[in-house]
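Example record

The entry below shows one chain as it appears in the dataset: sequence first, then structure tokens.
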Amino acid sequence: MFVFICLCLCQAGVFVADAVKSESVTEGESVSLNSSFTQIQTQEEIEWRFANILIAKVKKNKESKIFNGSAEGRFRDRLKLDHQTGSLTIINSRTTDSGLYTVSSNKRDTINMINLTVYARLPVPVISSNSSQNSSSSSSSSSCSLVCSAVNVSHVTLSWFKGNSVFSSIRVSDLSSRSDLLLHLECVDDSYSCVLNNPIRNQTQHLNNTQLCHTCAAEFCGFTEAVIRLALSAVVGVATVAVLVYDIRSRSLQQKKYPSNSD
């Protein structure tokens, strides 16, 4: 669409600004889109378009006009114009406001473009016991199986952390009703957490080891074997998944199993 708009404008003798500016905001927040004009000139008319649809215009020292019915009415009663600079403010932003905005003037040969991304609010991820796995392995092992979940999310990354180090992560591009990330441990300490994030926000849930898993004894903490696996369930659409798998084993434990023959 950007190329199409540029071609049309160039043919009309209008200069398009070199770089498309980017703005990001969380839904529900207000965002101001800068017209890049210091001040509206006499008899100048500023027009704002969303996806090439006229949504607002203003003249110097005159009332602005908001087209509430345009763009399928998505901006109804949520737009404000600055009568001095022509900048546009979107109130109570929504994810459907994401897209390309253009601002032009009847007195200037430049059109400025802004690509706005409105991210959905992030829920706090939930850590729970993977009861089916735990029950099946309880008779043969004392390992603990945990799952970190987030519901109704898109364009996010869900990750397990130990301290500041990433154990495993998945990236969900399209809307999924539920995304799960599994963690299997012999025992845990209080340094584990699950983080849900997008490019501008994050939500963190810390693991309370006294509730879901037994804690590591001091002499055993260095010998923990951790394997992290991924599970995505009930995915709506196609999720792009990036998986990191770590297999952490203590060298000390291996040395006990396989002692050196140098002696």
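Notes for this example: The chain is about 10% helix and 40% strand. Confidence is low (pLDDT under 50) at residues 1-15, 219-257.
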